[in-house]
Every structure is written in structure tokens, then in C-alpha cells.
Design brief:
Layout: H1 2-18, H2 23-38, H3 41-56, H4 63-76, H5 80-91, H6 97-113, H7 116-133, H8 138-148, H9 159-167, H10 173-202, H11 213-239, H12 244-262, H13 267-300, H14 303-314, H15 318-333, H16 338-355, H17 360-374, H18 382-391, H19 395-418, H20 421-429, H21 438-444
Amino acid sequence: MTATVSLILALGMVLLLVLGVPICIAIAISSLIAGGVALDFGLMLTTGAQRTFTGVSVFTLIAIPFFILAGNIMNQGGIALRLMNFARLLVGKLPGCYAHTNAMANMLFGAISGSGVAAASAMGTIIGPIAIKEGYDRDYMATINIATAPTGLLIPPSNVLITYALVSGGTSVAALFLAGYIPGILWGLACMVVAGIIAKRKGYRGDSQKVTLALATKITLEALPSLLLIIIVIGGIVAGAFTATEGAIVAVVYSLFLSVCYKTISLKTLLKIYRDSSEMTGIIILLIGVSSIMSWVISFVQIPDAVGNLLRGVSDSKIVIMLIINVFLLFIGTFLDTTPAVLIFTPIFLPVAISCGISPVEFGIIITFNLCIGLITPPVGNILFVGVKVGKTTIERVMTKILPYYAVILIVLMAITYLPFLSSWLPQAAGYDTSMGPWAKEMLGVQ
């Protein structure tokens, strides 16, 4: 039965996606058919409706629309240039200063806006033309912009991590937020090392502009209000001053306050932001709801156990099993966006990862890291295409030069996979339990 249902689920999804059916509808139809074969079609329709309602009736889920709204406000709020100047202040003296500034600004802006695409678009548009006027190679700037834009999905606040917290059975959002810092920063720093080596070969020097104390103070003070968003929201969540949902609301209020102070958003723009945020929220909420049906079917027919037995049949080595999971997620990430991929594959692979000694918090970072790589990889990499467009270059030219960045990013992926403390150290130091809670054990069928 498990093999039959798994085959129906997989083939149904693939067939519907090939036919151009929206992914949320494809998940719902394939899950209902597979569940009907395992259970009963009439009973499965009732169960599907119940699971959909239950899946979206989670208080933490309210954080997602508010973080989306806060990110969209910040994207329009005039903070990109301020963060770029601050990043240049920090790393401007390094060889290839504009590349390092781009990388650092992507880490800062991506973390504030919660969008890798927004970071790639904003920083590529601002920094790229300046660097090219200074004699920098267009493709060199485009590749560092593309390679570092996904870091904001790891460095909190991150909607992907909130989604994972829900589908993994209530993993602490605060623990996941803390766990994302070191891997996200390591990703950015690894890319900066590559950019620095290439810069030396090309003869790119550091920023020749003399930075006085007065100028440094001015740049820092201009960027400080935007940077305070991270401190207030993440600090408040970690300190227990408010929940992730309340933190998201604080982020919206603070973003609106900054926009009013900067005078960067009109009423017309604000209405468009609300509309865009509502549309994006609707898509994500529907995905979470229908994915709850799939999660129930996967658990009911014990697909995680079957996958675990299959992987253990290949090898008893935890190193090999986690390597296979990573390779699979890297492949899937090139075709599926992060949110649906997290919703579909977390219930399948999390129990297997736990059997290998990986905690839910650590695996949340591993799966997010893998899928973020897919965002800069053909054929569906959103950040790749945006970076190429704003960089005014081509996929063919960029792909030959981004390979060293892929190499160091994969090294960081292997490090966080086989050195779990890189993800767990910060949440554990803050007093968070990274082990699996009762809700997750019951949902995933883990003893």
C-alpha cells in the first residue's frame, strides 16, 4: 500500500505540474487521490477539509503575512541605499570593495526585507552601475550579487523558517531564527573570500575614498534605524518579550514609522504594497493548508518509514544517508520554490534526519540552505534570473563564472550538515531546547 500511494502521489504531482496546474492545486488533487486509495474517497474528502482547516488554524502562522507586509514596506522604504553605504563603510577597504559591499549589503537587506529576490534587485540596481563606472567587470558584479542574495532567507526574520516550524510539528521559531545566523553569515563570508581572490587577480583595489570620523558617524546613524529593526524584532522574540507573531506586527509598525520619517511611501504606493502582500499571503496560506493534507497522507501510509528503510538499505552510515538527502534536496530545489518544497519534503525527510541524530532545528537549516541554492541555479532559479536582468548580462556568461561560488557554498552546506553545532550552538546558548517536542513526535510518528 505504501509503495502504491507513494507512486500515485509522486506521479500525480509531476503530471499535474507538467500540465501547468498551479502547485497548490496539484498538491491538493494528488493528495486527495492518493489518500482515497489508501482510505476511502468519501472519507478522504472530509479528512482533507479538516486537515486544510487545521493546517492554517495555527497562531504562529499569522506571523507570515505581517513579515511579508513589513518586508514589502521596507523594500519601498528607501533603506537599500543607506544599508549599501553602511556595508561599504565596513568592507570598503578590501580588494574588490564593490563586490564585498554588494555581499554585505545583500546580507543586511535580505535579512531586513526577508526576500532574496528583493535584495538581488535592489543591490544589483544600486551597486552594479557604480562598480562598472569604476572599471569593474559586469559579470563579476552580477555573480557576487546572485551568489549572496539568498543569505537573507537564512538570516532572520525568514518566512521559510516560520513555514518549516509549522510543518515540522511546532519547532521553536525563535530557535530556528537563532540557528540561521551562523550558516547565513558563513554563506556570505565564503562568497566574499572567492570575490576577494578574483579581485586580486583582476587588480581591483579597495575604496580610495578617505573615511573621516564625521562621515562614518553620519553613515552609521543613517543606517541605524533600519538595522534596529533586526535588533528589536529578533531580540524581542529571543528574549521572550513577544512571540514571533507579535514580533511580525512590531516589524510592520516600525517599518511604517520609518517610511513616514523617510517620506518614501505615498498613499498610492502603500495601497499597492497591501495588495501585493495580500496576494502573496493568500498563495502561501493556501499552500500550507493543502500541504497539510499531503502531510497527513504521508504519515498515514508511513512513507517516512519506507524512505528511511530504503536509505538504510543503501547504507547504514549516517554520513551517506545525509549526503543522499542533501543531493536530493539540491536537485528538487532547482525545480521547486522554497515554500512548497519545505511543505512537501519536511514530513518525509525529517524523521530520517532525526534517526541520524540531526535535531529538528538543525534539519530546518539544512533543508532551507539546500533549497536556497536552488534559487540561484537553473532552470527555475528566481534570484539567478533577477540578478542577470539587473546586472544586464546573460545566463551563459554568468554560469561559467559563478561555479567557484557554488563550490564554497556547497562546502558550507557540508559543514552545517556534519558539524551540527554550527546551527545549534546559538539557540542552545540562548536556552532553547532543539530536540523534538511531543506535537512533532505525534505528527511524524517518531518515538
